[in-house]
Amino acid sequence: MSALSQRLQAIDALRGLVILIMMVDHVRETFYLHHQVLDPMRIEETEASLFFSRILAHLCAPVFVVLTGLSAYLYQAKHNSLSMTREFLLKRGLFLVILELLVINFAWTGQFPPHVIYLQVIWAIGISMIVLALLIGLPQRILWLIAVLIIFGHNLLDQVSLQQMPILQPIWLILHERGWIEWGEFLKLRTSYPVLPWIGVILLGYSIGATIFQAQMTPQRRTTYLWIFGCSSIVGFVILRMLNVYGDRAWLEMSTPLQTLMSFFNLTKYPPSLLFILWNVGLGLLLLVALEKVQQQAWVHPLIIYGSVPMFFYIVHLFVLKLLYVVAVALWGQNHGDYFGVNQVSTLWWIAIILCIVLYPLMRWFSKFKHQNKQIPFLKYL
Fold first, then answer.
1. Among candidates 31, 47, 43, which has minimal Cα distance to 264?
2. What is the pLDDT of residue 350?
3. Membrane-spanning regions, if any (predicted)?
4. What's the rounded Cα separation, in Å, for the pair 356 and 16?
5. Which pLDDT score, from 0 to 100, does residue 7 have?
6. Which residues 6+ apart lie within 8 Å of 298 measured at CB?
7. Residue 45 has pLDDT above 70, yes or no
8. What phi-psi label fits residue 253: left (phi over 0), alpha (psi between -120 and 50 degrees) or beta?
9. Is the dihedral of CA 172, 174, 179, 183 positive or negative?
10. Which of 15, 62, 301, 339 has CA atoms 20 to 30 A from the CA of 370?
């Protein structure tokens, strides 16, 4: 197996791992809505099992986005063409934006035509890919600089508001502030994932690829660099978090050591704070190092399968969850106020595990079908 194929397998394995973690969180958003969590969470009102399940799921979006940037560089290296890469990013980004608007929103809300459109992670990845397509011709040092400035500097903008400038306010909400955009009387847009920080993360992924995933880089040296990047990111998180002056809301000493620990890791996702990015991207890079070392082991193969068809899984699992919820309401009714829900966080994990096992044969079939039919253009987007 070539070095490139090995790298792609490790990337798919990491993507597959976070997909399975994502399933747990989406099961929570389907069957645990009677215990909704804020961002960041309220420690006193959130049980520890729910808190740490949610914190674990924080890993998903940063890893997806940084791997998108890394994969964009690998695509460019494989085809040795900047124009092909730019075209692919533009088409894939536009595809993801349209998919979010027309398909993903329907999977979440069941409304068509929609009254509310939630601009979530698929939207953010799509917009980030489009921006990356426009920037990849710049010198690599400039791309690194832009990535670092966005990631480390965007929290300086937290107090900026353009409410008094209605013409610019929608643009600001899309870029950096979670809020509502009213489009006439019948449609509202919710900017759940403001895109500016995610643009920094995708540029970071591309820059990491261009720096240490070059063909002449030995696997040992690449692993060393990934380890350094990952550890540096986590150490930076710990130092800044201990200082408690910048990068997220301050953590507090709570009534118990466990709650104090929860406060320390209670990070802001919408939009992702500097500390949120440092912790989760750093952890993701260390997981990539670990998976490269074990990617040939049999237990990793299902992760590779899931990671090879991420968008197909994303669409399928959302509709499966919606169907299960409708069936549950029909059978047992709304047992928690306006919702049907389970009573234990552990039940969410069991539902997610069972669904991942049940969906695996379909993912394996589609992965094989996708590999055997590369001539079908749209399959590469799934």
1. 43
2. 97
3. 55-76, 88-109, 115-135, 142-157, 195-213, 225-246, 270-291, 303-328, 348-366
4. 11
5. 56
6. none
7. yes
8. beta
9. positive
10. 62
